[in-house]
């Protein structure tokens, strides 16, 4: 029986490319068909050697080399954001861990994350358009978010004396200007956003004694060295602040203390990133992936529920409505796996679209991918996302990016994503999957900063009202 199936596969592989499937867009479709033939071969091998699971996503035997479960769950900088629910119970949508796959179709939106999030967004911004042909092909925010460093935890956040060892840090400058204890404030900042954070528990003598990607660091004046991940920081605070606040243009002086642009950006970023509920946002899709090396299924997709649940359909609905229809910037985590790299998104452009027959949509997505049974049309999309990168050196933040095009160009980034959308008979997007280079490279989650509590203070000391006064001078100078 097996030999007869293999013979049939070989005959089809030879005859069909020169027959029915050699019509318009022949080369593209033939490649798709050969991919389908290969997937049949995979299925035949599974008949001989059955998969260890009955689910549509068979987990591989690969073991993640580093998942570090304790750190993400305890770390407010790593975007668990449970504190925000307490601060804004009416404005924050809690998200449960996403299910591994919908029972009806992999292409459907996730009922645990995407559906409640979309409902919340529509409550805040109005009904979202879901018809593919009615959605704009491009969009741009009217105000460009500004760049900053993410104030790495390895530098102890905004305790870092970025200008020189002799010039005070943003924390020290604020403490002097507003007559509070710089030592006490510095300790609070370090415990929330720096080296003394409670999830940094491993002591060390050098980088070699830390996990890969971690650094062995100590606070200024301390002999205690701890392992800290070099990607940790307040990128969420910078991203939110850059979306909601205009860029400061010049240094300002208050009570004899000079605040450079970098100082102001650091203080405002720390305020937005603090755990006192000073800002809130809504995730648009999926849960955060806490796994550094997720397992994959037979189609090559991540099988971990929070690493592979961001549907391309919701991504397209979100970005085309937020930027195309509403011209509102937002944030996304551009790293699919364990690390979190929040970046401000300010625009998008659809590069290419192509209608696909159901058969070839199936081929692109993988033979085991479950298409939505109510989908009647399939569209391949390549879309470029425009986002702002962080700067590597702190002194670059003193440049006026709105007026210095050379400096600005270094921070303008573009990432292209490829996916297949599933449409129903009304032309509405009901699902979709990532393909080609975008498979397992999609945004981990997306979110929108929607407000700030002007009565709040970060670390119990840095008041938004104080920062707002400094900001107004720096913006209007």
From TrEMBL:
Family matches, as InterPro entries: TGase_elicitor
Keyword Signal: yes
Coiled coil: none
Keyword Signal: yes
Keywords from the UniProt entry: Signal
Gene3D superfamilies (alphabetical): Transglutaminase elicitor, body domain (3.30.40.240)
Cross-referenced Pfam families: TGase_elicitor (PF16683)
GO molecular function per UniProt: aminoacyltransferase activity
Region annotation Disordered: where it falls in the sequence: 47-78
Biased composition (Low complexity): 50-76
Signal peptide (from-to): 1-22
Entry protein name: Uncharacterized protein
Biological classification of the source: Eukaryota, Fungi, Fungi incertae sedis, Chytridiomycota, Chytridiomycota incertae sedis
């Amino acid at each position: 029986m097996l030999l007869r199936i293999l013979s049939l596969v070989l005959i089809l592989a030879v005859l069909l490319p020169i027959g029915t499937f050699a019509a318009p867009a022949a080369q593209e479709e033939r490649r798709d068909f050969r991919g389908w033939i290969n997937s049949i071969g995979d299925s035949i091998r599974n008949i001989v050697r059955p998969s260890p699971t009955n689910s549509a996503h068979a987990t591989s035997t690969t073991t993640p080399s580093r998942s570090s479960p304790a750190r993400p769950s305890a770390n407010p900088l790593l975007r668990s954001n449970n504190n925000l629910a307490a601060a804004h119970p009416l404005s924050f949508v809690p998200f449960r861990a996403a299910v591994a796959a919908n029972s009806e179709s992999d292409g459907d939106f996730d009922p645990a994350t995407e559906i409640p999030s979309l409902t919340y967004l529509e409550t805040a911004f109005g009904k979202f358009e879901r018809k593919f042909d009615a959605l704009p092909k491009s969009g741009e925010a009217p105000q460009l978010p500004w760049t900053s460093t993410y104030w790495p935890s390895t530098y102890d956040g905004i305790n870092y004396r970025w200008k020189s060892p002799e010039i005070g840090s943003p924390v020290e400058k604020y403490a002097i200007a507003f007559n509070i204890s710089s030592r006490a404030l510095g300790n609070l900042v370090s415990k929330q956003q720096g080296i003394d954070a409670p999830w940094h528990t491993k002591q060390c003598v050098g980088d070699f004694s830390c996990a890969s990607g971690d650094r062995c660091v100590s606070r200024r004046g301390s002999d205690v060295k701890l392992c800290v991940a070099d990607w940790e920081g307040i990128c969420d605070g910078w991203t939110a602040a850059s979306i909601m606040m205009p860029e400061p243009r010049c240094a300002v002086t208050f009570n004899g203390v000079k605040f450079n642009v970098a100082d102001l950006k650091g203080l405002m970023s720390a305020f937005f990133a603090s755990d006192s509920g000073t800002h809130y946002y809504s995730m648009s899709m999926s849960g955060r992936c806490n796994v550094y090396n997720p397992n994959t299924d037979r189609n090559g997709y991540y099988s971990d529920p929070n690493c592979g649940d961001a549907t391309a359909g919701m991504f397209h609905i979100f970005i085309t409505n937020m930027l195309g229809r509403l011209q509102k910037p937002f944030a996304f985590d551009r790293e699919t796996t364990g690390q979190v790299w929040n970046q401000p998104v300010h625009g998008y452009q659809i590069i290419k679209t192509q209608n696909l027959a159901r058969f070839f949509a199936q081929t692109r997505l993988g033979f085991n991918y479950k298409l939505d049974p109510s989908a009647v049309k399939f569209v391949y999309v390549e879309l470029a996302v425009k986002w702002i990168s962080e700067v590597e050196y702190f002194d670059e933040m003193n440049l006026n990016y709105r007026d210095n095009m050379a400096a600005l160009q270094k921070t303008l980034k573009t990432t292209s994503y490829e996916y297949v959308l599933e449409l129903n008979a009304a032309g509405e997007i009901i699902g979709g999957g990532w393909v080609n280079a975008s498979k397992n490279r999609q945004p981990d989650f997306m979110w929108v900063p929607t407000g700030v509590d002007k009565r709040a203070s970060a670390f119990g000391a840095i008041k938004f009202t104080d920062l707002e006064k400094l900001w107004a001078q720096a913006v209007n100078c």
